[in-house]
Specification:
Layout lengths: L35 E6 L5 H14 L4 H18 L8 E9 L2 E9 L11 H9 L2 E7 L2 E9 L4
Antiparallel strand pairs: 1-2, 2-3, 3-5, 4-5
Helix pairs in contact: 1-2, 2-3
């Protein structure tokens, strides 16, 4: 069995908090494979699963509690923006990109129409106030909101 410290999936000290620490994530649209992917039915009843998963990953990255709560709220607002646009029977897909001091979350749904995000909406204003970076875009029939939270000092 390989030593945990030598595994490419773990940091020097063997903890999972350093997943992705050596890779570059550009705010906005990440270009590398997600560290964690989550697929849920596109139904608001499952938004709590997304918020809880986000909070758990942020805690693994040693985010301060205030940042974890801000991120949980921002992800909730992102899902509130994309879910009404979902095509019938589609899934809510979430990709998490983790670095040493940042968590980038992409939340998207398949759509059967062009979506123009309401950047004046309350949800968008909350999301962009809480997140360090945020984008909304249509990518190949998918409406995606991507947000990045850079952690403050503990």
């Amino acid at each position: 069995m390989p030593d945990q410290d030598s595994s490419p999936d773990h940091g020097e000290d063997g903890d999972m908090a350093s997943i992705g620490a050596g890779t570059d994530v550009t705010p906005g649209r990440p270009t590398r494979r997600a560290d964690v992917e989550l697929r849920l039915p596109a139904d608001s009843a499952f938004a709590s699963v997304l918020r809880t998963t986000t909070a758990g990953l942020a805690a693994r990255l040693d985010f301060p509690i205030d940042d974890i709560e801000d991120l949980r709220i921002a992800v909730g607002e992102a899902s509130a923006m994309v879910l009404p646009e979902a095509a019938p029977g589609s899934d809510l897909t979430c990709h998490f990109f983790m670095t040493h001091a940042a968590l980038t979350v992409s939340v998207g749904v398949d759509v059967d129409h062009a979506v123009t995000p309401d950047l004046d909406s309350f949800a968008w204003q909350v999301l962009t106030t809480l997140a360090t970076h945020a984008t909304a875009e249509n990518i190949d029939g998918t409406f995606v909101i991507t947000l990045t939270m850079e952690s403050g000092p503990s």
